[in-house]
Design a protein that fits this description.
The protein has helices spanning about 1-30, 45-55, 120-130, 155-165, 175-185, 210-220, 240-255, 270-280; strands at about 60-65, 80-85, 90, 90-95, 100-110, 135-145, 145-155, 195-200, 225-230, 260-265, 285-290, 300-305, 315-320, 325. It is α/β, with parallel strands linked by helices and about 325 residues long.
């Protein structure tokens, strides 16, 4: 019994000595234990644009390039573009061609002159919503005698669809008021890219705001204006003077902001045109520069974008905003 106890004590001592000797060696071979570091999360798709937006001296210019058949031209590089600010060439310090989230306001004409076009126009708006990305957001304004926000910003397409169900053609056309309301609502946008889509015959005749008011507000806003012009044929005897002036009016406002107008004579083309506009918004080049003349005097500065295309391409057309107001002192 005593011999067995002695043997047990010897074994315990041996085990302790082995642990004292072997564990440091094992730890040295295996290295210190480490707590796994979680991978750095990827920035959201619009993080770069949000960062650029915070740099108030950075001017961002969305640019659309199309060929003679009005097809989008993609794949151009930074050295294919030249940017001028008040006639002085600028260094392009940011260049991208990426599909980033967009904040879009749809301005829907439900005036009496659109009464026989309402259903097709609704289909165009719904088709436009269907092409949205998950991070896009929309609001919806309709107008006749007055403009009304019928849906604030949302990414829920079901809400937008339901609100459109109750749109009926009636009354006169407060187009300028609707654009003004849309530009005001855009101040609450969560994305740096912003656009308005107008679906209308362009026949303004009942607004409190004037054409001059809209021009100035649009120039102050970093918003592109697109329009689907649902025009009556030129020979239509029932076409009013306002409807006759509509195409030129929408065209001028859109060009000033870097957007475009897509005239439609066949109502069955409306959904396809809406899809085309959505694709264009998602395939634009964005040029960024810091003005070499950094005077923040609040004055209007003209922008010019010149294209230097690769050899072998046909003549290309470039669309971009015409200028901006420098920040005030």
């Amino acid at each position: 019994m005593e011999q067995r106890a002695k043997s047990l004590r010897v074994a315990v001592v041996a085990l302790v000595l082995c642990a004292a000797t072997c564990l440091p060696l094992f730890a040295q071979q295996q290295g210190p234990m480490r707590t796994p570091v979680p991978p750095k999360p990827k920035p959201p798709a619009n993080a770069v644009h949000d960062t650029l937006r915070q740099r108030v001296n950075m001017v961002l210019v969305p640019v659309t390039v199309v060929d003679p058949y009005d097809r989008l031209v993609t794949g151009l590089q930074q050295d294919n573009f030249r940017v001028y600010d008040n006639g002085v060439e600028q260094e392009i310090v940011h260049f991208s061609e990426e599909d980033v989230p967009i904040s879009i306001g749809v301005i829907f004409d439900m005036s009496g002159s659109m009464s026989d076009k309402i259903n097709k126009s609704k289909s165009a708006a719904l088709q436009f919503f269907k092409t949205a990305n998950p991070q896009d957001e929309f609001f919806l304004v309709d107008f006749s005698d007055r403009a009304e926000l019928i849906s604030p910003f949302t990414s829920d397409l079901n809400i937008l669809r339901d609100r459109l169900m109750f749109v009926r053609g009636r009354g006169r056309t407060a187009l300028f008021d609707a654009i003004y309301l849309g530009l005001s609502e855009m101040r609450g946008a969560h994305n740096s890219r912003k656009a308005l889509l107008i679906i209308s015959d362009g026949g303004e005749n009942h607004s409190r705001y004037s054409e001059g008011d809209i021009r100035e507000y649009l120039k102050e806003s970093d918003v592109q204006l697109y329009a689907i012009g649902v025009y009556e044929p030129l020979a239509d005897r029932d076409r009013t003077q306002e409807e006759g002036e509509g195409p030129a009016l929408l065209e001028e406002l859109a060009q000033m902001s870097g957007g475009r107008v897509f005239p439609v004579s066949n109502l069955n083309e409306l959904p396809d045109i809406a899809t085309k506009i959505s694709m264009e918004l998602r395939n634009q080049y964005v040029l960024g520069y810091i003005p070499s003349d950094e005077k923040n005097n609040g004055k209007w500065r003209k922008i010019k974008v010149r294209l230097v295309p690769p050899r072998g391409l046909p003549p290309l057309t470039v669309y971009y905003k015409h200028g901006y107001y420098a920040s005030g002192p």
